[in-house]
Each structure stands twice: as structure tokens, then as C-alpha cells.
Amino acid sequence: MLILENALAPNWDVGGFLCLDACQTPKNPYILGVSIQMNKPPKHILPIIVVAQFCCTSLWFASNGVMQDLVYNFGLGTSAVGTLTSAVQFGFISGTLLFALLTLTDRFSPSKVFLVCALWGAASNALLLWEGNSTITLFVFRYLTGFFLAGIYPVGMKIAADYFDKGLGTSLGYLVGALVVGTAFPHLLKNFDQLLSWQQVITITSVLALSGGVLIWTLVPNGPYRKPSQQLQLTAFFQVFKNRQFKVAAFGYFGHMWELYALWAFVPVLLTTFAETHSSSLSVPLWSFAVIGVGGLACMLGGHIARNKGSKSTARTALLLSGCCCVLLPLVFVWGKPYFFLAFLLFWGMVVAADSPQFSTLVAQNAIPELKGTALTIVNCIGFAISIVSLQLLSFLLQQTPSIWTYTLLALGPAFGLYHLITKKGD
Predict the structure, then answer these.
(1) Cα 185 to the chain's mean position, in Å?
(2) In which region does residue 15 sit, left (phi positive, over 0), alpha (psi from -120 to 50) or beta (all else)?
(3) 43: which DSSP letter?
(4) Residue 216: pLDDT band by 50, 70, 90 thresholds?
(5) Average pLDDT in the 147-170 region?
(6) Residues 33, 59: one domain?
(7) Exposure pattern of 208-229 as b/e (b: 16+ CB <10 Å)?
(8) The domain containing residue 23 runs over which residues?
């Protein structure tokens, strides 16, 4: 029995006895002829991770949801949307780069990392309420918010991967879906501007982030599939890309990221431009929430589709459809039918997000087990760096010319991702 106790991971059932002494998952499911089966994760685990992810990622677009108020109260310029959104992305990149180089999520308890980052992220977000803010201070505070989100979004996926081996695509579908809805949530709050001031919107998102961190810390301990790294590995950034299938999944994700956040950031601009051009009456905050938030449902639906079709096929199809939307946008815009335009944006909002959890699944499945958290963080780091380029480029071009055809440059991302997913090398 001593051999069994030292060989088996916690929460593994062995002939009716539960062994709790060891910390590593056995590679061989049969030791001394005894069949080992892992107990299913407690039913509360996935819902708690999903709720916490929603609460904490509401920080992401908190400033976008109240952008017009920030512009008015602090005298910001016309480039504020691109600048403050990019500040979050830049902070996220810095955070993920540091986390990856130090392999923090593989060396320390992911739940504790999640809590600490949620607390500091909420505090950074709350600093938007300071009456002495300027463009520079707002940029710094949004940068810090993004930095600490690096310990929330990829760490949440790491926690899920530590609990769910089979069906990871479905689990991450719910998890990323929560991120999408959380990202859209400030727009929904802003829709009730007659009831809520912009200061209350910021306060609510900060309180939600605090709550999410506490939920994870108190109710979600380390998962049974966690394989902690025992030492600092500064070469991990390069090690993870030695696997060919890992690179294919990562490159597909990079193409996806070129499009995703640029679209999300400019959805309110698209809606406002359409309403002004075609003299339509639209609730921009409400439809912004709907277009972004519907992607959360698509992530969850895509997770179930991936069970039968596979993560790679599901991601590839969604990426193809979103690329088509990039190209078709000007035609739908010029046609000028409000309901058709809104339906088109809702469809785009679905397919642009649906592939994200499946790419993350492919990355996690093809990563070195001891560096799974670091691998997810690295890919997020590079992906968000790419999103800054597309955000700034789109913002710059729209300032030069307001042509709706400018948005077609977003199609470059899906084209890049599809090239790597479809080629024989990728297969």
C-alpha cells in the first residue's frame, strides 16, 4: 500500500480507497494490477471558474463602456478608443511575458495567482475614478489593469486544464464564453445610463473583479491534473514552440487575434457610423453588448460542436466565416438595411469568438505538461501583441479616411491563420 500511496495522485480511486498523499498524476493507469480511475471534478468547479472569469474580465472593456464620459470629463482626444484599448493590451502583453519568463503559473498555486491579480486589477480599474486623471494617467491605469489581467484570463484556462483532461474544449468553451460576456458587460451597464453613472459602472466592475478572485481562492483548489514545475525555466518561452502541432494551433490563434479585439473595440464606432450615415435610431451601448456578448454563447456552442467535429475543424470553420464577414462588411453597410446590418454584426460577433477556446484547447493539448500554464500564457502574450498592431493600424487609417472599406484589413488575420491550419504541414 505504501507504493500505491506514493505513486497515485490525489482524488484517484484505488480499489475503494482514496489516496491523498502524493501530488503527481501517475503515467500508468495500472499499478500492481490495480485499475485506477480518477473521480470526476466536483460539479461546482466549472461553474465557479466560469463565474469568476466573467466577474474579473469585466475589467477589460470597462473604459470602453464609458468612453464618451471619459472623453468629456477628462478632455481626451479622438484617438482615445484606440489608445486606451491598446493600453490594456500592452499591459496584458507585459504581464504575460513576465509570467511566462518566470513560469509563475506553473511554479505557484494558480488559484492564489488568480486572487492576487484580481485584487490588483480591481484597484487599478478603480483609479479611473480619480478626478485628477489625464490622458497619461488613464493610459497608465489601463496598462496596469491589463498587466494584472495576465494573471486572470490565461490562469483561468490553466485552472480548467488542471481539472478537465477529456472534454477540455467544451470546458474552455464555457470559460472563454464567460470572458466574452464579461468583456461586453460594461456596454450593458452603460445602456442604463439613466440609472447608473459612469462612476458606478467602474465601481461595479471593480467589485465584480474582487468577488471573482475570492471565489476562485476559496472554492477552487489545485486540480488533480496539475503538474507543478519545480524550478525556474527561462528557456520555456522557446521550448514550447518545438512541437509542430503546437505551432500550428498558435499561428491559427494569432490570426484570430488580429481580428478579434479590433472588431470589439470598434463595434460602437461601427454602430454609430451606420446610424449617422443611414439616419437610423440605434441604442449603441445595448447593441454593442449584444454583438460582443453573443460571442460568449458561440464559444459554449462551439465547445459542444468540437466534441464531435474536433477542436481543429471547429476553429477552422469559425475562422473562415469570420474572415468572410471582414470582406462582406462594406457591402452590408452600404446596403443600409438596419435589421440586416444588425443581424450581420450578431453573426460576426458569434464566429469571431467561437474559435478562441478551441485554439486554446489545441495549445493546451500540445504543450509540455509541466509548462502548460506557461504555454497558454506565451501564446496569449504574442496574440495580444498582434492585436495592438491591428488596433493601432485600424485607428490610424480611420483617422486618415472614414471609408468603411478600411475594416477589410481585418481579413488578413483569418487568412494567415487559415493558411497554417489548412496546409499539409499543419495537418
Answers:
(1) 14
(2) left
(3) T
(4) very high
(5) 82
(6) no
(7) bbbebbebbbebbbbbbbbbbb
(8) 2-38
Return the amino acid letter for 147.
Answer: F
Are residues 253 and 331 both part of a single domain?
yes
| Residues 167, 25 share a domain | no
* For residue 3, pLDDT beyond 60: no
Is there a single domain that holds both residue 265 and residue 376? yes
- Are 14 and 99 members of one domain? no
pTM of the model: 0.74
217 to 71, 116, 260, 273: CA distances (angstroms): 36, 9, 30, 43
In a domain, 415, yes or no: yes
**Among 212, 104, 93, 211, residue whose Cα is nearest residue 155:** 104
Q: How many residues does the chain have?
A: 427
Instruction: Return the closest-CA partner of residue 269 out of 127, 402, 102, 366.
Output: 402
Are 263 and 330 a contacting pair, CB within 8 Å? Answer: no
Q: What is the pLDDT of residue 162?
A: 82
Residues 329 and 294 in one domain: yes
With the C-alpha atoms ordered 243, 246, 251, 257, is the resulting torsion angle positive or negative?
negative
Do 15 and 62 lie in a common domain?
Answer: no
Report residue 399 as a C-alpha cell.
483617422
pLDDT at 39: 60
Model pLDDT for residues 322-373, shown as the tens digit of each residue? 999 999 999 999 998 999 999 999 999 999 999 998 998 888 888 777 777 6
Q: In what order do the strands lie in the sheet with 34-38?
A: 17-19, 12-14, 34-38, 30-31
Residues 153, 8 share a domain: no
> Residue 238: is its pLDDT beyond 80?
no
Burial 306-316 (b: 16+ CB within 10 A, else e): beebebbebbb
For residue 68, is it within any domain? Answer: yes
Number of domains the chain is built from: 2
DSSP notation for 330-390: HHHHHH--HHHHHHHHHHHHHHHHHTHHHHHHHHHHTS-GGGHHHHHHHHHHHHHHHHHHH
Largest CA distance in the chain: 77
Residue 427 lies in a domain: no
Q: Give the C-alpha separation, 311 to 308, whole Å.
A: 9
Residue 6 lies in a domain: yes
Instruction: Tell the residue number behind the cell numbers 445610463, with chain if given.
Output: 193
Q: What angle do CA 312, 159, 117 make, to 5 degrees?
A: 120
pLDDT tens for each residue of 13-29: 333 323 333 344 444 33
- In 3-state terms the chain splits into helix, strand, coil percentages (rounded to 5) of 75, 5, 20
Q: Which helix (H) or strand (E) holds 19?
A: strand 17-19
